[in-house]
Amino acid sequence: MEVKTTTPSAASTEATTNDQTKNTTDQLQASQDTGQNEEGQNTADEQEEPEHRLSPRASEDYEFVKKAILGDQKAYAVLMERYRNSIYHMMFKMVKNRDDSEDLTLEAFGKAFAKLPSYAPRYAFSTWLFKIAINNCIDHIRKKRLHLLSIDDPIEPGGDHDFSSNIRSSVLDPEQSFIRNQRLELMRSVMNKLSVKYRLMIELRFFEELSYEEIANELNIPLGTVKAQLFRAKEIMYNHLQSPGCKAYLDNTTRRKKSKTKAQAKRDLAVAV
């Protein structure tokens, strides 16, 4: 029995091979496109992920941070306005001194703004800022401790005298306060005898503590006029203070002050001996 076999033609075989190759190429290209899209999506998600973790306020802070890095001065002002009071109160809790707290607050913002380009939004700007402020405050406390000295320690080991006996009080005693108030009343009464322009000069110079230039700018007059009128005003006041009642009072308080100074000097000498 004769069996007939059919051999495919060369053209048919080549067409089939080309179709298979094309399908495989299309599948590979589609797979690469899908991979690239997934990789790009993952990269975008990774870049956006830190911001998505932030609270709405922290995200808003980050927008101001980016503006500040670009040189927007208003953005710096907004960030400082938001957290200045909080930083100050935290500093005050740590150092218990208002002046030091104010200085430390400004130092914290200065250091934070200088390092602003290094800030990364993995956590809130406020957290980053508070960490800088706390570390700076700790350094301040460490440095300050090196200069502390107890006034109750003896001047010499085993001695009876401590440092407190050699420290003069900056607070006026009752007698000094009374004399000071009387002098102020006396000066006010003498000033009331001056004309308006001379009284204004004395008040601006000695009560408001303005410089000659500041007085000239305030009154819109030449600097030479300010000096001349002040000289004349002081001369008139001096003449009033030489009147019998004023002069007697001033002489009495001056003698009392000298007497007290001598007594204090004697006490200091006795302590030293």
Keywords:
273 residues; mainly alpha; Rna Polymerase Sigma Factor, Chain: A; Arc Repressor Mutant, subunit A; 75% helix; disordered N terminus; disordered C terminus
Q: How does this model look, in words?
A:
It is a single chain. By secondary structure, the chain is mostly helical. Among the domains are: 56-145, RNA polymerase sigma factor, region 2, helix turn helix motif (Rna Polymerase Sigma Factor, Chain: A); 174-272, Orthogonal Bundle (Arc Repressor Mutant, subunit A). The chain has helices at residues 10-53, 56-69, 73-95, 98-114, 125-145, 174-191, 196-207, 212-219, 223-241, 244-272. Residues 1-17, 34-52 and 268-273 have low confidence and may be disordered.
Task: List the topology elements.
Elements: H1 10-53, H2 56-69, H3 73-95, H4 98-114, H5 125-145, H6 174-191, H7 196-207, H8 212-219, H9 223-241, H10 244-272
Helix pairs in contact: 2-3, 3-4, 3-5, 4-5, 7-9, 8-9
How much of the residues is beta strand, in percent? under 5%
Helix content: over 70%
Specify the CATH architecture of the domain at 174-272. Orthogonal Bundle
> What's the CATH class label of the domain at 174-272?
Mainly Alpha
